[in-house]
Amino acid sequence: MERRDSADTEIERVASSLMAGSGGDSSIFRVYKHPVKSVIVQIITQLQHALFPGYFEDSQLSIRAMRYQLCSLLEEILSGLSEQISFALRFSEQFKSAPQETIEREASAIALNFLSKLPVVKEYLDTDIEAAYEGDPSAFSKSEIIISYPGIYTGMIHRLAHELYLLQVPLIPRIMSEHAHSVTGIDVHPGASIGKYFFMDHGTGIVIGETTVIGSYVKIYQGVTLGALSTSGGQKLKNVKRHPTILDHVTIYSGASILGGETVIGENVVIGGNAFVIKSVPEKTKVSVKSPELLYKNGDKSVHKDLEKSDDWFYMI
User: Fold this and answer.
1) Which fold has domain 192-291?
2) pLDDT, greater one: 218 or 291
3) Residue-range domain boundaries for the chain
4) Cα 291-297-299 angle, rounded to 5 deg
5) What is the sign of the dihedral through the CA atoms of 20, 26, 29 and 34?
6) Fold of the domain spanning 26-185
7) 114 near 144, Cβ under 8 Å?
8) pTM of the model
9) Which of 118, 21, 11, 20 lies closest to 74 in space, CA to CA?
């Protein structure tokens, strides 16, 4: 009996310590509920169904049945998202001490506003799909791109999360973007602004920071970083332009890093593989890393292959 009492005491001590050590405002943590990640992921799936009717259904539906199902789905999204937003708003300074009724009313208004943005999100996604199809010779069809391309999936989640970010919803946009990150390996902050006809080819390892601005007809390959020069300033850099601006018709090949809030990549620029860019680049410029020297060995015989005059190294996708 004494051993059981000792275990109970230790459990109580550990529980109290864990509660005290939780991140954020512990008083809020104890009283209010956070947005639920599993529910947010479910809402993402529902939104994917809504944005691409007929592509992710278990069975084929008539147009009439699909329209009815879509209306029903949008009602579910509105209800579920309103609840999650109400949880999230409690963690903003503006609504931290607001009455629950005020929180719920604001959450419903934000969710409805978000829902009204879906046709515009769909319009942008359609241009992304077009860019992927035109830019990838291995693409079998646009249906294949919608169903299977990680860049399109991440782009969809980003465009949805960005709308919630603009509506100043805490927590949920980042939950959405980090879900996409965990599934595809593509890390796009919901604050990044991205124009039409955006294509992330292959995608794995792409990082796009919060204050990045990307124009239209931009194509980037795997391993590209659009980042900050330094984050050593921590929270003092909040709301400061830390990430680059990429203008229209830019192509950035694999492994390139473009850093800094004052860095502007002009229109029709091509950035070669593995380039490290921390200064602005004027329009219609090609940027490349100096070509390496490769060494080929055939038995005891060594042959140097200099790619200095070759274009092969420049692209490296």
Assistant:
1) UDP N-Acetylglucosamine Acyltransferase; domain 1 (2.160.10)
2) 218
3) 26-185, 192-291
4) 175
5) negative
6) serine acetyltransferase, domain 1 (1.10.3130)
7) no
8) 0.89
9) 118
